[in-house]
Amino acid sequence: KTHITLFSIVFLLLCSTMTMAQTVFRGTVIDSETKQPIAEARVGISNQGVGEITNTKGFFNYRKYH
């Protein structure tokens, strides 16, 4: 019973740290003149080497795990 309790506590601590250890950026890329969404635009943070590409509606969901 002690092992199960200890495992449960460790599991909950790991889950809480994993959820707090990420940054999420979401949005839509649109053309400033036409106000239309831009599909397949690259979105990311400079000098990070990773990012996302917008979908057909210009939406992106970028997650960075720390």
Describe the protein's architecture and organization.
It is a single chain. By secondary structure, the protein is an alpha+beta fold. The protein is built from one helix and four strands, in the order H-E-E-E-E. The protein has one helix at 2-20; strands at 22-28, 42-44, 51-53, 59-65. It has a two-stranded antiparallel sheet with strand order 1-4. The chain has a two-stranded antiparallel ribbon with strand order 2-3. A hairpin with a 6-residue loop joins strand 2 (42-44) and strand 3 (51-53). The radius of gyration is 19 Å and the shape is elongated. The model has no long low-confidence stretch (mean pLDDT 75).
Helix/strand-derived class?
alpha+beta
Give the SSE string. Answer: HEEEE
Percent of residues in helices: 25-40%
Q: What is the topology, as strand order, of the major beta sheet?
A: 1-4
